Amino acid sequence: MRWLLLSMLLVATSAVAQPIDGHATRETRNLFANMQRLAQRGVMFGHQNTLTYGHDWAGDADRSDVKDVTGVYPAVYGWDVMDIFADKTDRLDPAKAARLRAFVAAAHARGGVNTFSWHMPNPVTGTDAWDVSPAVAAILPGGRLHDAYRRRLDIAATFLASLKDAQGRPIPVWFRPFHEQTGAWFWWGRGNASAADFVALWRFTVGYLRDTRRVHNLLYAYSTDIFDGAADYFAFYPGDRWVDMLGFDDYHSIEITRTRDVFARRLAEVTRWAGERGKIAALTETGLEKLPDPQWWTQVLLPGLQAPSSRGVSYVLVWRNANAAREKREHFFAPYRGQASAADFVQFEKSPMTLFEPDLPNLYANPAAR
Ligand code: BMA
Questions:
Q1: Which neighbouring-strand residues pair with 250?
Q2: Which atom of ligand 1 is nearest to the CA of 331?
Q3: Ligand 1 centre and the CA of 140: distance in Å?
Q4: Which of 67, 83, 186, 359 is most buried, with most CB under 10 Å away?
Q5: Is 349 an active-site residue?
C-alpha cells in the first residue's frame, strides 16, 4: 500500500512538470517532457552557430565543423537573436533573419533542439551588450526607453513566432536571454543592474512574449555564469513560475582536470536544483578556446559529465567556431578537420553518454505515445 501511494505520488509529481507557458504548443510541451526524460539517458551535445561558418569555411550548405570531424550533426544548435538585426540597430535585417530561420528549420528537421541567446545591444547607448552603462531601469515599464524596448521585443517576437516546420507548425525553441548575469560584463549583469530590476526585466520580457504577443513556442532558460553556492546562483532568479531551465555557463572550472571537483559540484548542484523544481538542467555554454589539450573531450569534459551526481544534465553546448580568415584571432571551441583534438572528439561522440543527431528519439512527439 505504501509502495502504491509512493508510486502514485511519483507519477503525480512528474506529471506536474510543465512549461511555464500554460498555452505552449503541443510540440513545445512534448519537447520539455522529452528533454527531461532523455537527460536520464545521456547528455546532448550542442554547438553555437554550427551551420553558419566554421574555422576554415563560411556559407557552405549543410556543413558544420562538428559534422566534418565526426560525420554527424550535433543534437543542440545555439543561435543568437542579435543576428536578425542590422548591426547593433533595432532594425530587422530581413536577409539575415531569413537565413537564420532556414538554419533553425534545418536543425529542427533533423530532430535537433534550437536555443537562442541574445547579446542585446545596450539600449541606452546603442552600443553592444558589453557596454555596461546603466540601462535596465530605463527599459522597465515606466522607464523612458520602455516603448523602444517593446519595439525591439516585437521584432524578436515576430521572428520567433515565424519559425515553422514543414507542416507549418511553430518550431519549439529555447530562449535564454540576459545570460551570465552573475558576471559583471553585460549591461544586465551583476553590479550594472539591481537584482530587483533584473527580475522585473525578466518577468516583463517573458510576460510580454507569452501573454501580450502570445508566442507559444518558447521555453525559457535561466543561465548564470560560474557561481558559488545557492545564494550566488539564485541571486537574480525570477522564480519558478518564470523559468523552464536552470543552466550555467562555465569556461573556467572545466578547462583543466585540476578544478574538476569544482565543476562537478556546480553541475551536481544545478542538476539537483532543477530536479527539485521540475525544470531542466543544462551546461548552457562551455568550452576550451583553441583546444590545445588534444584529449580535452574524453579526459576532462566527459569525466566531468559522467560524475554520478551530475546525472540528469540535458545538454552541454560549446561556443562558436569563428571563421579564422574573417576574424582576427583564433576563437573556436569545437575541433575542425585536422585540429589537435579531432580524434579525441570522435571518441567523445562515440561514448554512450553523449547524444548527437543519430542518438535522438523524436523529441517533438508525445512522450506517452512512445
Ligand atoms: C562571444 C564571442 C564574441 C561574439 C559573442 C556573441 O563569446 O564569441 O566574438 O561576438 O560571443 O556571439
A1: 286
A2: 8
A3: 26
A4: 186
A5: no
Structural domains in the chain, CATH included, are 2-369 (3.20.20.80)
Return the amino acid letter for 209. Answer: L
Span 267-279, pLDDT tens digits:
999 999 999 999 9
Q: Is 327 a catalytic residue?
A: no
Mean pLDDT computed over 334-354: 98
Task: Tell me which DSSP letter residue 230 carries.
Answer: H
| % of the chain at pLDDT higher than 70 | 95
Ligand 1, CB within 6 Å, residue ranges? 80, 119, 319-320, 331
Cell of 197: 530590476
Q: Tell whether pTM > 0.90.
A: yes
Mutational test site, ligand 1, from 178, 288, 320, max ligand atoms within 8 Å of CB: 320
CA dist., res. 34 & res. 43, Å (int): 13
Q: Is 327 helix (H, G, I), strand (E, B) or coil?
A: coil
Q: Are 314 and 75 in contact (CB under 8 A)?
A: no
